Amino acid sequence: QGNILRAQGKDWHPNCFKCTQCAIPLKPDNFYEKNGKPYCEDDYHKLFSPKCGGCLFPITDGQIVNAMGKPWHPLCFKCTECAIPLTPPHFREKNGKPYCERDYNRLFAPPCHGCSLPITDPSTMVKAMGKNWHPQCFHCYECHRPLTPSNFMEKNGKPYCEDDYHKLFSPKCSECLLPIRGTPLVAMGRQWHPNCFKCYQCGIPLSPNNFKEKDGKPYCNKHFQEMFLPKCYGCKLPIADKVLTALGHNWHPDCFCCAVCHKPLGSEGYREKDGLPYCDFDYHALFSPKCGACQAPIREVCVH
Ligand SMILES: [Zn+2]
Ligand SMILES: [Zn+2]
Ligand SMILES: [Zn+2]
Ligand SMILES: [Zn+2]
Ligand SMILES: [Zn+2]
Ligand SMILES: [Zn+2]
Ligand SMILES: [Zn+2]
Ligand SMILES: [Zn+2]
């Protein structure tokens, strides 16, 4: 009979073969089936097809882009900013929205303090001096060797390797002219490596509180005395304090004394005989004529 409809291997009243969801009558050559039940195309997709993460409509043709944990119409998976279609994995995500690389970087990537370009891979970003850097952009301002945030020196907002920092900014040693990395020793109005402040003659290290200076060079006390102090003609030792000049030589005041009684003589009022100094008494006792009566020297006679 013309009133019998055959579908799903069964016979139906034409009015009874209808969409399980909306009850619209179905044609046996145009329906969808799920779990043995017939559906119209619309409802079948509404109920059972994956929904697009962009437009939220069902994806009916099986053309699915899977991204960010959701299915998408290929044309719906596009940059939130410029609407260019995106192809996973070539896209960036921010707050659950997809972006093309260019817009993501423009909008969200922090700029590098070195080159001003966006830092597109946050996992490699270097944070130093309160700024963000590409790892290759955080380098010594002088020699361009790469630096790490835990090992660099800063000057005027610029990073330096330790070598260059000291070369450029540390005080230079007055002796070896190399940078002084630690605390400089200050002496003679100049700065020194503690080991470089030494006796110019013997090389012994000197204390800034105990040294002698001559012609801009430091000396230990011993060598300063040996090299620069006048020597006593009597004891041959250096004269640090008062110099007595007599008989054409320098003397310790205590060393210029009578050749006989060793009493210190002073620079005036001594007598000389054959290059030796004498006190007045011994001079006359030795060299003046003696009185025939009393045997005492006759002092008034001039020996010269
Ligand atoms: Zn869509
Ligand atoms: Zn875009
Ligand atoms: Zn950079
Ligand atoms: Zn450097
Ligand atoms: Zn030095
Ligand atoms: Zn010395
Ligand atoms: Zn002396
Ligand atoms: Zn004497």
Report on this model:
- There is one protein chain.
- With 304 residues, this protein is of the alpha+beta class.
- Among the domains are: 5-48, Cysteine Rich Protein, CATH 2.10.110; 170-228, Cysteine Rich Protein; 230-304, Cysteine Rich Protein, CATH 2.10.110.10.
- It has 5 helices and 20 strands.
- The chain has helices at residues 41-48, 101-107, 162-169, 221-228, 280-287, and strands spanning 5-7, 10-12, 32-34, 37-39, 65-67, 70-72, 92-94, 97-99, 126-128, 131-133, 153-155, 158-160, 185-187, 190-192, 212-214, 217-219, 244-246, 249-251, 271-273, 276-278.
- Strands 1-2 form a two-stranded antiparallel sheet.
- A hairpin with a 2-residue loop joins strand 17 (244-246) and strand 18 (249-251).
- The longest helix is centred in the N-terminal third of the chain and has 8 residues, at 41-48.
- It is rod-shaped, with a radius of gyration of 54 Å.
- The mean pLDDT is 91.
The helix content is 10-25%
Strand content: 15-25%
Mean pLDDT: 91
For CATH, the homologous superfamily of the domain at 230-304 is named as: Cysteine Rich Protein
Can you count the beta strands?
Answer: 20
Give a short synopsis of this structure:
The chain contains 5 helices and 20 strands. It has 304 residues and is of the alpha+beta class.
Topology:
Elements: E1 5-7, E2 10-12, E3 32-34, E4 37-39, H1 41-48, E5 65-67, E6 70-72, E7 92-94, E8 97-99, H2 101-107, E9 126-128, E10 131-133, E11 153-155, E12 158-160, H3 162-169, E13 185-187, E14 190-192, E15 212-214, E16 217-219, H4 221-228, E17 244-246, E18 249-251, E19 271-273, E20 276-278, H5 280-287
Antiparallel strand pairs: 1-2, 3-4, 5-6, 7-8, 9-10, 11-12, 13-14, 15-16, 17-18, 19-20
